[in-house]
């Protein structure tokens, strides 16, 4: 900017000098001296401008370096913080891995104990079953053959004729029936296992289908000592489940 002002001033002086009329040689000489002085001054000013521009450039460079140093320091601080966080996380992961390893070891020990306990329980059950089998075989050997026959006959009456437990007993001891001793018949009744409710229902259905009896009459026939001799509970089950 200063260069432009100096050059403009110089141009104005030259124009004024050229436009003068009847100037003497002394004035021309003075003008030449002034121009030279101005040119020298202009050169000095230009040099000063260049020096200032150089100083400005150096200052800008210094500011840039300082800014870079500041940014670098900030980045280093952040990097240190992140490094600390990573180390902390790694320590936590290591602790968790140790806990997991400890739990896995405990789990393996627990599973081993459970397996041993189950095996011991199975062995104990096998021994108990063997003892029961041996005991059952021994008891079976002690049961008279006639008693076993009475039990087999009781099952036949229950399955084929759908009789009650009391009715089967009467049939087993009757002189017109099986004529088993009372001890054999009682053994059969004590050891037979059957669904007596289902037998009562089958008997009730027979009375309903063959004799067209009412539910009340069927109930009486089922519990009668001269009839089927089912228990009241078994007879009621049968009547309640008739269609």
From TrEMBL:
Residues 146-192, 195-242 form the Putative host cell surface-exposed lipoprotein Ltp-like HTH region domain. PROSITE patterns: PROKAR_LIPOPROTEIN. Residues 58-82, 104-144 are annotated as: Disordered. Residues 117-133 have a biased composition (Acidic residues). Residues 1-18 form the signal peptide. It comes from the Bacteria. Keywords: Signal. This is RNA pol II promoter Fmp27-like protein. It comes from Jeotgalicoccus halotolerans.
């Amino acid at each position: 900017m200063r260069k432009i002002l100096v050059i403009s001033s110089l141009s104005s002086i030259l124009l004024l000098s050229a436009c003068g009329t009847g100037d003497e040689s002394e004035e021309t000489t003075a003008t030449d001296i002034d121009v030279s002085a101005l040119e020298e001054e202009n050169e000095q000013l230009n040099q000063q401008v260049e020096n200032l521009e150089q100083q400005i450039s150096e200052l800008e460079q210094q500011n840039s370096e300082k800014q870079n140093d500041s940014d670098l320091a900030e980045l280093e601080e952040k990097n240190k913080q992140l490094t600390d966080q990573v180390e902390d996380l790694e320590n936590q992961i290591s602790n968790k891995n140790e806990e997991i390893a400890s739990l896995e070891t405990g789990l393996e020990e627990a599973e081993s104990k459970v397996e041993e306990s189950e095996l011991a329980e199975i062995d104990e059950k096998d021994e108990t079953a063997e003892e029961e089998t041996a005991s059952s075989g021994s008891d079976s050997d002690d049961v008279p053959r006639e008693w076993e026959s009475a039990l087999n006959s009781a099952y036949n009456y229950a399955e084929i004729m759908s009789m009650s437990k009391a009715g089967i007993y009467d049939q087993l001891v009757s002189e017109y029936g099986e004529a088993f001793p009372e001890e054999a018949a009682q053994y059969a009744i004590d050891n037979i296992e059957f669904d007596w409710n289902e037998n009562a229902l089958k008997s009730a259905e027979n009375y309903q289908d063959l004799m067209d009896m009412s539910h009340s009459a069927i109930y009486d026939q089922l519990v009668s000592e001269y009839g089927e001799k089912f228990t009241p509970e078994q007879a009621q089950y049968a009547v309640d489940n008739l269609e």
